[in-house]
Predict the structure.
Amino acid sequence: MKIGVLALQGAVREHIRHIELSGHEGIAVKRVEQLNEIEGLILPGGESTTLRRLMNLYGFKEALQQSSLPMFGTCAGLIVLAQDIVGETGYLNKLNITVERNSFGRQVDSFETELEIKGIANDIEGVFIRAPHIANVGENVEILSTVNDKIVAVKQNQYLGVSFHPELTDDYRVTDYFINKIIKETH
Ligand code: GLN
């Protein structure tokens, strides 16, 4: 399958590598027309205010709101998928959740920890960089992982969102789960 990585900002190459390790073709998506060529889209981390601005500029907001393409958001990508953002307006409204940005506190701005993720494994290395957490989940949202009672991974139908950066490690099992489980299930 061809899987896209939204390539407006953030860690694109690393995600493409994980797609390839999962046995599929990864392409950098820069124009909305490319959405027709892919079976799923990864929204990378970076800075979600900038990401949203660029998505508005290049027409991705409307295109993705109207699309039922499976999507996987990491960190800033998770923020973009949320229905609500604390103190701001929600954006794509694909995950029925409220996210809070930069919410692990200044002392632990960035950290790594081993995560248990339901349906994937109990030894996933989570790299958190000024990460958001999921403060609330609505109906039909499945909680897949928590860190100190903070929700850091969720799934709702064909949408997956995590607070951390799986692409920054060599462990591609989260991407593999998105492609070989979530996308295949929706076919
Ligand atoms: N702190 C960033 C934001 O709120 C997200 C950080 C990241 O993607 N690593 O947009």
In short: Residues 45-48, 75-76, 79, 101-102, 129-130, 132 surround glutamine (CB under 6 Å). The mean pLDDT is 96.
